[in-house]
Design a protein that fits this description.
The chain is α/β, with parallel strands linked by helices. It is built from eight helices and seven strands. Bound molecules: NADP nicotinamide-adenine-dinucleotide phosphate.
């Protein structure tokens, strides 16, 4: 299938590892020019170098924290200056800590809002005017299965991700006339460092082993295995492509069937 996005400019936030990195790679594999960011400069640089070498595409990588609105503004301006525009923007950030409601501090709530909601607002404000000029754009948010089905001890994610879905639907409604499609992708349990962090937290509070957590997550999923970052990435790239030209305002779960609703 020709996805029709060769030479498009794809910005992928929080992309030095895990699902973000796999997504940057998948856009590079389609011949897109890629812009990446994350906080740790070394990990980011080595991910960017690998993608550049493997796929022979232009890659711009800048280390910064996506909760810093001014840094997001500077980055989007730098991407547009180097590549001429921003066609595709995938928003992402690390997940909030696993906690129950009374264990979560007010600081935890503020951090979760900043990383997992406001960062999407910051990117959307900056990229939409570029997309409006070209009458073409894609914004895809990476959230979680928690947008459809709350997960125990992930109250921060369960609550904050819902705000992203409200934003996605609102942006889809407001900017569809400009050819900008806005969708949300929700991972289920996917084999990344984030999942190791959740297994460690679960093991520490329950006395069970980390392996028991991985086994239970796989067993709870109809496909009986964890997801691979590549499987999220390929869904995101397809949603950003010309082949998904009549889909907007949706949440697509890539969860091996874990969501129990209809
Ligand atoms: N893996 C799963 O099973 C799963 C399931 C549901 C939802 N999710 C969600 O999907 C998203 C991606 O998950 P993942 O598993 O790929 O996570 P991951 O393996 O922990 O990778 C997170 C990436 O984001 C970067 N990052 C984190 N916070 C950042 C910030 N404030 N500013 C800039 N970059 C930042 C990290 O680099 P630096 O640390 O260097 O900044 C890293 O590159 C998360 O929001 C996660 O909660 C994951």
């Amino acid at each position: 299938m020709n996805l029709g996005i060769k030479d498009r400019v794809a910005l992928v936030a929080a992309s030095s590892q895990g699902i973000g990195k796999a997504t940057a790679e998948a856009f590079a594999a389609e011949g897109c020019r890629v812009a990446m960011c994350a906080r740790n400069p070394q990990t980011l640089q080595s991910a960017a170098d690998r993608i550049r070498e493997q796929y022979n595409v232009e890659v711009l990588a800048e280390p910064f924290d996506v909760t810093d609105a001014a840094a997001v503004t500077r980055f989007v301006a730098a991407v547009a200056a180097q590549f001429g525009s921003v066609d595709i923007c995938v928003t992402n950030a690390g997940g909030p800590p696993a906690k129950g409601f009374l264990a979560a501090s007010l600081e935890d709530w503020q951090r979760a809002l900043a990383a997992n909601f406001l960062s999407t607002v910051y990117f959307a404000r900056e990229v939409i005017p570029h997309m409006q000029k070209k009458k073409w754009g894609r914004i895809i948010t990476i959230t979680s299965i928690t947008t459809k089905q709350p997960v125990a001890d992930l109250v921060l994610s369960n609550a904050v991700r819902a705000a992203v879905v409200g934003l996605v639907k609102s942006l889809a409604n407001e900017f569809g006339k400009d050819g900008i499609l806005v969708n949300n992708v929700g991972p289920g349990f996917t084999a990344t460092d984030r999942l190791k962090e959740l297994a460690r937290a679960g093991a520490a509070s329950s006395g069970k082993s980390e392996q028991e957590f991985f086994d239970r997550w796989a067993a709870d999923t109809p496909l009986k295995r964890l997801g691979e970052p590549r499987e999220l990435a390929e869904t995101i790239v397809w949603l950003a492509s010309q082949r998904a030209s009549y889909i907007t305002g949706q949440t697509v779960l890539v969860d091996g069937g874990m969501y129990k609703g209809l």
